[in-house]
Every structure is written in C-alpha cells, then in structure tokens.
Design goal:
The protein has 268 residues and is α/β, with parallel strands linked by helices. The protein is built from five helices and 14 strands. An eight-stranded mixed sheet has the order 1-2-6-3-9-10-11-14, sandwiched between helices. It has a two-stranded antiparallel sheet with strand order 4-5. The two termini are 22 Å apart.
Length: 268
C-alpha cells in the first residue's frame, strides 16, 4: 500500500492566533481522524516564518511527524498541531535556539505555554478534521503535556469520540484527577517518575475506579469502564525513543493497545 507523507498547514484560532500543524492524509478514504498532541519538550528543527507574519512559527519534532505518518498509513486522517506559540497572555512569544549539525533547534519557550489557550488551538483542529469528514469520528492521543491536554479534551469536548493519554503530566493532580470524561479514555501510566508520583497515580486510579459503576460503556455481552488504565514497569516518558527513559517493551505494548483502542472506537 502506498502512503502519503504529511505536510505542514497553517491554522487560525478564533482569537486570530496563527499556528502550524503537521497533517497527513491516508491513501484511501479515512476510517477516522486522529489528533496527536506533542510533549512539552518536543524540538522544532528549522523554524518557519508565517507567510502573513514574520514571527517564527514553531514546528514539531521528527518523532511526532513520524507518528503522524505512521497513523495515516493505518488509514486515519492525522493532524498534530504545534502548541508552542501561546504565551502567558495569549500572544506569540520568543524562543531560545541553538545551532546544531542538523540546523537550528528550539530549546525552550521564553514564557510558559498556557494550556487553556492551547485548548483553543486543539478545538480549531478538531473542528477542521470534522469538516473534512463530517460522518467520521475524532480521536485524540497525547504524550506528557499533550497527555494532559488529551485528558482535558476528553472531559470537555463532546466532539471527541476517544482519547489516549501517555503519562499525562498534571492529570493526577487533586483538582484534575476527578474529572469525568465524556468518551472512552485509555490512560498509560508509568511506575516511576518525578512528574507523576506513585502516590498521585494510585489516587488517580482509585478515584477513577470509584466512578466506574456510574460511568461504563455497555455493549451486548460486554461492560467496560469509560476510563481504561494500563500501568507499566517503566519510567515517565517510556515511549520517547532516543531518551534515557525510553523502554522498548513498554512502548510497544502501549502503542499496540492504543491502536486497538482507536480501531475499536473510531470506526463508524
């Protein structure tokens, strides 16, 4: 089967904020749409200037672009927005860069990225993919900070049909872990890590399991919790190939479970 390589496209949020997203179409009619949300420390090589503005518009790491192409090859319309362009006040802001043998690389934003404003960009992308396939279903998958945003989307966006969160930093905090999603969610938790303590993960599991009886998916002959939690004997960031935390067995297991999960809930 031939596959198409994704390309960058420019999007505009309702507040006129411009951002880029990496978009890949399948080689056949899509069986669903998938929005991929990157880590907070994703690197952007060779920053690109907006056509309409001279401000640099951060892109996405090779890892995320590879995942976009990978899931497009599985038959999904896939979009990965770059969420680095939001400052504390909602304005575009500067970045620290360094030169490497492969070009100019993003080190970090000069201001913290506002998650609530990033959600506006995610909503913009979700609306766009819905317009591309009105009868299709939309799923969201995120890693680290993107995992938290995927959890947020599952709990606030009724257009989302399924969500998967890989070690969503922040989602085990007391004010967040009791949120109730509106769609099936697959949560991948590590066994260790500084951004998610063992105690906070145990509390998240306990809170969500307490809600299982009132929030279940019922199918003929099958009852399953709305929130499916998988735990791995691996560190936070275990899916990030090339990092110190990468754990191949855990990564492969989580990816297979995620593929099966989306195949189940996104097919019309």
């Amino acid at each position: 089967m031939t596959t198409r390589t994704g390309q960058y496209a420019e999007f505009i949020s309702p507040d006129k904020h411009r951002f880029r997203a990496f978009v890949a179409h399948p080689s056949r009619p899509p069986r669903g749409a998938l929005v991929l949300l990157h880590e907070m420390d994703a690197r952007s090589v060779n920053r690109v200037h907006s056509v309409a503005h001279h401000n640099p518009m951060p892109g996405l790491s090779q890892r995320i672009r590879g995942l976009v192409n990978e899931h497009a090859a599985r038959g999904y319309l896939v979009v990965a927005p770059s969420l680095f362009g939001r400052g504390r006040a909602g304005q575009d802001h500067g970045y620290k860069y360094q030169m490497t043998s492969t070009g100019e690389q993003l080190l970090k934003p000069l201001q913290p990225v506002d998650s609530s404003r990033a959600m506006a960009d995610i909503q913009t992308v979700v609306a766009w993919v819905q317009a591309q396939m009105p009868q299709g279903r939309v799923g969201i998958m995120g890693f680290c900070w993107g995992g938290l945003l995927a959890w947020h989307a599952a709990c606030t966006l009724p257009q989302v049909s399924a969500a998967a969160s890989f070690y969503g930093g922040g989602m085990t905090h007391p004010e967040v872990r009791s949120w109730q999603p509106m769609c099936p969610v697959l949560v991948h938790l590590p066994s260790k890590g500084t951004l998610m303590t063992q105690e906070s993960m145990d509390e998240f599991v306990a809170v969500q399991r307490d809600q299982f009886e009132s929030h279940q998916l019922t199918r003929p002959g099958h009852i399953s919790p709305l929130v499916q939690i998988e735990r791995y004997d691996a560190a936070y960031g275990f899916d990030h190939a090339g990092s110190r935390q990468h754990d191949l067995p855990a990564s492969q297991a989580a990816r297979l479970k995620s593929c099966s999960f989306f195949d189940r809930y996104l097919h019309a």
